[in-house]
Design brief:
Elements lengths: L1 E13 L10 E17 L3 E7 L2 E6 L12 H12 L6 E7 L9 H16 L6 H16 L5 H8 L2 E4 L7 E2 L7 E5 L6 H14 L1 H24 L2 H18 L4 H12 L4 E4 L7 E5 L2 H13 L3 E3 L9 E5 L1
Parallel strand pairs: 3-5
Antiparallel strand pairs: 1-2, 1-12, 2-5, 2-6, 3-4, 6-7, 8-10, 8-11, 9-10
The protein binds (R)-mevalonate (MEV).
Length: 320
């Protein structure tokens, strides 16, 4: 028997970085799904194929030390199962997904899909909350830091308001997000950026904590704007959030260029998404301005990505 699970990537709309320090965040699940197919493998062995020519074979006992980048999150997720004595047999996994991650949550999606596929294969019946908890622990094992926001998007999907790690996020009832998303062309190091922001906070707590608090208040207001479709107000909040991320030092010249390009084409607002230092930005634009926003972003060197948002969370497919 073989079982497949898929989980979506994410776009952080509001709360980036502040969410790591206990403030709320808003995230939407994006249609860049990662797949894990699981079947029974050799006894007490984990076999992982990440591409047709890349296969890893690891005894369960050796898993805790494994940090190879292409399997680190899979191994950390399997370790969660092992530490709970949930794996009685060997496990064979095949992973796949978009060939470029664009910084849209591949690590969380892979961790979540691994747990969901193994749960189905071995009849573990893990609830979404258990998968969330274990995937968050797996991501923390590999990265050492993180809010759990990305994991929440991968498990629950949709667009959600994330208040506190460990709690089920609130799903926002938003039909359609008028977003344009562009990749800045370079990958960011999430862990380094999270650590840099944390270090800035340690050096200047009296300055940085109020910035986080403002970002938290933006999330609260942005939530009602989203639910009521007040895009113009949402755009203004987006621009303030961008300014605060610049204050935290997570912007880059390229991201700023893209943000200004979108605003110059009359987008309601624009900001970077996630850790910063590269990866993606987004702009809010209605249908009448969408084409001009895309043109300006491309002229500024952005790679516009057509990606559906608010998509379903983790899904399992039983196969023969
Ligand atoms: C990264 O996608 C979002 C950050 O807030 C980190 C996190 O929440 O774990 C920068």
């Amino acid at each position: 028997m073989q079982v497949s699970a898929s989980a979506p990537g994410k776009l952080v709309l509001f709360g980036d970085h502040a969410v790591v320090h206990g403030y709320p965040g808003i995230v939407t699940a994006v249609d860049r799904r990662y797949y894990v197919t699981a079947s029974i493998g050799d006894n007490a062995m984990l076999q992982v194929r990440t591409s047709p020519d890349r296969q890893h074979e690891l005894p369960f006992g050796a898993l805790p030390g494994v940090q190879e980048p292409d399997i680190a999150f899979v191994v950390a997720a399997v370790n969660q199962l092992l530490s709970r004595k949930m794996l009685k047999r060997g496990l064979r996994l095949v992973t796949s997904g978009p060939c470029r991650s664009l910084g849209l949550g591949s690590s969380s999606a892979i961790s979540v899909a691994t747990l969901a596929a193994a749960s189905q294969l071995f009849g573990l019946d893990l609830s979404p909350e258990e998968i969330y908890k274990m995937a968050r622990a797996a991501v923390l094992d590999v990265q050492g830091a993180g809010s759990g926001l990305d994991v929440a998007a991968a498990v629950y999907g949709g667009t959600c308001y994330f208040e506190r790690a460990g709690e089920v996020p609130e799903m926002l009832s938003v039909e359609r997000l008028p977003l344009v998303i562009a990749y800045s062309g370079s990958k960011a190091g999430t862990v380094d950026l999270v650590q840099e922001v944390a270090a800035l906070r340690s050096r200047h707590p009296d300055l940085v904590e109020p910035v986080f608090a403002m970002i938290g208040r933006i999330c609260i207001r942005a939530r009602s704007c989203l639910e009521e479709g007040r895009w113009c107000d949402l755009g203004a909040l987006t621009n303030i959030n961008q300014g605060l991320l610049e204050a935290l030092g997570t912007g880059t010249a390229k991201l700023a260029n893209l943000v200004y390009a979108a605003r110059s084409a009359q987008a309601w607002g624009a900001k970077l998404s996630g850790a910063g230092g590269g990866d993606c930005m987004f702009a809010w634009a209605d249908d009448s301005r969408r084409a001009q926003v895309i043109d300006r972003l491309e002229a500024a060197g952005g790679e516009v990505a057509v990606i559906a948002c608010g998509v379903p969370g983790v899904q399992v497919v039983d196969e023969a």
